[in-house]
Each structure stands twice: as structure tokens, then as C-alpha cells.
Amino acid sequence: MPNRNTVLILAPFGRDAELLLGMLMSSDIQAKCIVEPSSLLDAVRSGRAGALMLTQEAFTPAFLALLTEALALQPDWSDLPVLVLVPGGMESPIIGRVEAALGGLPNVTFLERPIRPSTLASAGRAALKSRARQYEVERVSKERDKASASLLESEKLAAVGRLASSIAHELNNPLESITNLIYIVRNDPNLSADSQAHLDLASSELQRAAEITKQNLRFHRQSTRPVSITAEELFVPILALYKGRLANSSIDVITDFRGDSRVVCYEGEIRQVLSNLIGNAIDAMRTGGTLKIRCSCSLDWRTGANGLSILVADSGHGMSDEVRRRIFEAFYSTKGIGGTGLGLWVSSEIISKHKGHLRVRSTVGTRRQGTSFRLFLPDSAHEDDGQQTQ
Ligand SMILES: Nc1ncnc2c1ncn2[C@@H]1O[C@H](COP(=O)(O)OP(=O)(O)OP(=O)(O)O)[C@@H](O)[C@H]1O
Ligand SMILES: [Mg+2]
């Protein structure tokens, strides 16, 4: 199989190919003889050639036309070096045709035969060197494309964030008015017991809505200082927020907060991460299941760091390998309009800011089907930040 650093030789006459290969190889130049013109064209089209070395006998009219076309279709960064060996000191119609077709291309070199082995080797070496520079251009331009794609993603994210916080902000005022109005009506002594119960329910649902908008605003405003907080304190408001959805989907919640598992973190951001993990777990258990949350102080065996370990495990539908590979990509979601695909992407940014890590395991189609996320937050992440203890 030809590779990107090989001179491909097409020399159909006599032992030409073998001799050229010998000359290049004895100078430590990677080379390979190709028998079928179509294989050489395939290598050119798929970018698997470092340079071409062709003798005039290779240039049938059909091959010349196909080669010219393949060279014209190269990507911007590519200018494949082509070395053409022609008989010295004589003109021939074939040479005229090849020169007319390829002579205009910047990286085609005509070498006259008989050629000294050292001249052939230096031409081969120079061709591969110029090809290596092209690969460098390809690498840099791929990196640039990647950087501008992630810039675009973060701009999209910032726009989504701004939109979410402005909606949350605008919702706050009417929510407050409704809360006040409900308060006034609840104090009406003529209210029946039924109406009173309905208003209590309306009031608690309203509180949930207010908490959602507040969380949203808190997240986008960003906490300025890390605080020391227990795992339980992190989870309680989130579980309260999801109480309705957990009950509607018949999900049992098992929590296990071991000891005084405490960590220093940007509280709002870590809540955002946990809230998305729980939201995802609920989405995966539409027909019921079990959500396990286990928190303990532990040691990260990879780094030896102490910290807080949080397990969020569900018995939901799990993920295929393909899905699991992509879950941390921005805008990747399998939920259609039900998801923006930003939850885990934002989470991974937050976790790396906390110098922690998030690992996932998922099983599909067995009795132990489900997904577990294990989050580790090291104690030492914010030693240099201004810490505010509670
Ligand atoms: N617990 C889970 N069980 C099964 N699939 C999951 C689980 N958690 C995440 N996924 C998969 O990972 C994808 C990405 O999750 P992510 O939280 O980033 O986005 P989302 O939930 O689709 O949208 P949102 O931006 O609203 O969070 C989900 O669409 C889902 O396919
Ligand atoms: Mg999500």
C-alpha cells in the first residue's frame, strides 16, 4: 500500500522500474513500483503519494488525460511533485504531448536520460522534501479550520447563554407579580379549602419556576469566588427542582452522602453540571427506573489528589458506543428539539476549570443496562483563588 512519503514509480518498459527503484532505495529514499496505471491514479486521488516518477512509456493518451485531471483536483495545499524521465537530446511526439499537458504545472520536472544515480536520488529527495512542506501546510490549515470551528461554537454558545439569561431575566418580574397576587388571594378568609389547596400547589410550582430562572441567571452571571460546600448542599436544591419530573417518570432516587463530603468549588457552576447529569438521567428513564447518587471524599488514583467523588448512575436506556464517543461535542444531542446538546459540553468546560474530570460508563441491552457518570473534583483546585468559606 503506497503511503504519503513514497516515490511511486510507473515505468512500463523492460527493467526500467526495477532499476529506478534500486537507485532510489540505495540512497535511502522510500520508493515503490506501481504496475497498474489505475493504482497510481488512485493513490494520487486519495493523497497517498509523496511524489511520482514516470517514464515516457507510461504516457498513453488516456493515462495522460486522467493524470492531468487528478492533478488538477488536488486540494489547495497540495502540489504533488512529478518527475518525468525523458530520453536526452531528442524530440518525440510523446514528449511534446506530455510537456503540453503537464509542462504548465509548477511541480513537474523533466529529467533527461541517461541519468546519473546521484542526480536521480537528489531529484527524488528534493521532491519528497517539498511534499513534506506541503503536509506541514495541510496540518496548519486543518488546525486553523478546527480553531475557527470551535470559535464559532463558543460564539453560538455565548449567544445561547445571553438569550437564556435575558429570557430568565424577563420572566423574573411577572413571576414575582404572580407570587404576590397568589399571596394576597391565599389570605382571603372566604376561600374554600379546595381553592386554598389549589393555590398552595400553584404557589409551589411557581417557586420551582422562579428557582429555574434564578439558577439560569446565577449560572450566566458566574460566581466570583469558590465556596466550601458539602455534596448534600449541592444536591438538595437540584433534587427539589426535579421532584416533579422524577415522580412523573416513576423514578426511585437513592442518595448516599458519605461522611462530611465537602469540596471547594464555584457552587452555581457545579450545580449546573449536576443538574444536567440528573436531567439526562431522567430523560433516559422515561418509563421509570432508579437514580443513584453517591458522594464520598476519595483519592484520585491517577493523580494521587484528594477530592470529592460524585457518582450519578441511572438504569435508563444507555448509550451506544457511537453516542458515547460524541456526548462531549457541542450541539451533539439525540433528543431532537428536546435538547440543545450543550449540557455535557458546558459541563466539561466547567470541570476542567475545576481541574477535575468526568468519566462515563454505559451499557445497552443487558440486565444491568444504564449509564453512570463519575465526577471527581480535587480539593486543591482553587488554592490560588480567593476562597470564601461558609
Ligand atoms: N444518562 C444518559 N443516558 C443516556 N444517554 C445520555 C445520558 N446522558 C447523556 N446522554 C446522551 O448524550 C447526549 C448529550 O447530552 P447533553 O447533556 O450534552 O445534551 P442534551 O441533554 O441532549 O441537551 P441539553 O443541552 O438540553 O443538555 C444526549 O443527547 C444523550 O444522547
Ligand atoms: Mg442534557
Features:
3 domains; Rossmann fold; binds magnesium ion; Heat Shock Protein 90; 19% strand; 11 helices; alpha/beta; 12 strands; five-stranded parallel sheet; five-stranded mixed sheet; binds adenosine-5'-triphosphate; 390 residues
What does this entry look like structurally?
The structure is a single chain. The protein has 390 residues and is of the alpha/beta class. The chain folds into 3 domains: 7-142, Response regulator (Rossmann fold); 144-216, no CATH class; 222-382, Histidine kinase-like ATPase, C-terminal domain (Heat Shock Protein 90). The chain is 49% helix and 19% strand. It has helices at residues 16-25, 37-45, 61-72, 93-102, 117-186, 193-221, 231-241, 243-248, 267-284, 321-326, 343-353, and strands spanning 7-10, 31-33, 51-55, 82-87, 108-113, 227-230, 251-257, 262-265, 289-299, 306-314, 357-363, 370-378. Helix 2 (37-45) runs parallel beside helix 3 (61-72) and helix 5 (117-186) packs antiparallel against helix 6 (193-221). Adenosine-5'-triphosphate is lined by residues 276, 280-281, 284, 314, 316, 318-319, 323, 327, 332-335, 339-345, 371.
